[in-house]
Specification:
Rossmann fold, transferase, Cytidylate_kinase_dom, Cyt_kin_arch, nucleotide-binding, kinase
Length: about 190
């Protein structure tokens, strides 16, 4: 089963995707980890690299192509990235969207990256604006359109261990027969 996990920065994608993969006994691939590695290779922060990528779409395409290839060849896998649901739209058995209020996400990021909350919030807003622009220009994707997802959750509503119980229960209740004959997602240029 291929499961995708998407959402904005600080929504709990990485933590919950890793936990879900562990609980299901499958592999976890993180687009965020790959993106941060690409930024570090250029001695940039993720925000700086986002803005740099606005000027040169090769970096987005390289990352997105790698994630799409993973989706095409991955079987027992939780694929996690901002665009995972879109990149694996034709292959995913189940697509999750995670979100939380910006104030909660900024606090999570500030704690994780050991920086002031107001700085984390400002950087997150810049990063999201950059990504929203790039994804629309490159692929015609509106990241605010959640219609492609099978389930969307506000991760601030549950403690982390209880939220994993919710995710596992959701996956276990999934009926693959319900997907037979589903149409491809409209309006996306699949030229990753």
């Amino acid at each position: 089963m291929l499961i995708t996990v998407s959402g904005p920065p600080g929504s709990g994608k990485s933590t919950n995707a890793a936990g879900l993969a562990d609980r299901l006994g499958v592999e976890h691939v993180s687009g965020g980890d790959i993106f941060r590695e690409m930024a570090a290779e250029r001695d940039m922060t993720p925000v700086e690299f986002n803005e740099f990528a606005e000027e040169d779409p090769r970096f987005d395409r390289k990352l997105d192509r790698r994630l799409r290839e993973t989706a095409e060849t991955g079987d027992e896998l939780v694929l996690e990235s901002r665009l995972a649901g879109w990149l694996a739209a034709e292959h995913a058995d189940f697509r999750f969207w995670f979100d939380a209020p910006l104030s909660v996400r900024a606090e999570r990021i500030a704690e994780r990256e050991e920086k002031p909350v107001d700085r984390a919030r400002a950087e997150t807003e810049r990063r999201e604006a950059s990504e929203r622009k790039r994804y629309r220009e490159l692929y015609g994707i509106d990241v605010d359109d959640l219609s492609i997802y099978d389930a969307a959750y506000n991760t601030a509503r549950w403690p982390p261990d209880r939220f994993l119980d919710v995710l596992v229960a959701t996956v276990e209740a999934y009926d693959p027969a319900a997907d037979e004959g589903k149409a491809p997602i409209e309006g996306v240029r699949y030229d990753f």
